[in-house]
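Possible regression after last week's pipeline update?

I re-ran a chain I had predicted before the update to compare outputs. Posting the input and the new output here so someone can diff against the archived version. Not blocking, just want to make sure nothing changed silently.
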Amino acid sequence: MAQIVSLAASPRTTTGKGAARQARFQGKVPAVIYGHGRETQSLEVEAKALEKALTGVEPASTIIELAVDGTKTRTLIREIQRHPIRPDIIHVDFYEIHAEEKVKLRVPVHLAGNPDGVRNAGGVLDQVTREVEIEVMPDNIPDRVELDVTALKIGDSLHVRDLNIPNATILTLADLTIATVVPPRAEEVTAPAPEAATEVAEPELIRKVREDEEEGEGAAAGEGGAKPEAKGGTAAPAKGEKTEKVEKPKGGKES
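New output (post-update):
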């Protein structure tokens, strides 16, 4: 059965962002109430009283008995807006309900037990769906829905069709997975980095080849090899040798 919490509220005569900021500055939370054809009414509630009323309960499935100007109205919280940085509540939407009419709401799903696949095989329990939508009479609203996962082995799953909610119609798709046990996550093994291969720089190879060539030329010269050529491509004559001058034929070109 849903819990019932009492909360006092006051009508808010001014609206807009400026009025809402002023209400928060005074320690109050802007709110509205609507439903069953009534006009949306602007309200404000004490921030501390609201936080206390919602402590230890499931806000979406808790009946709030809202007292406005001495008149009590049973409501459900349709939306809670919180500050983007701080946990402060900055706005609340209340929806009026009647005892003789069914309501649609979302209730949280809580997993009970320690799965077999977790205890004995090191698996991991993963809850995929955390709430389901139901249609129910206000007096039969459950605070939450429990689902036993003790028997789950690795690879097993439980779905919405496995839920049992007395006196309520489940509106969420029956095949939707609620919880599953997955295999243990394997630890990644980092392969050792291969040793960097020693590369010989190309300039060193060229220098080595040139050194070998110079050594070979020096050895040939030492053994009386060919004399270095003179300027112009003609070999210089050795000592004591005569040179012959070749004359070009007159009136012709050099062949």
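Follow-up from reviewer: compared with the archived run. The first strand starts at residue 4 and ends at 11. Marking as no regression found.
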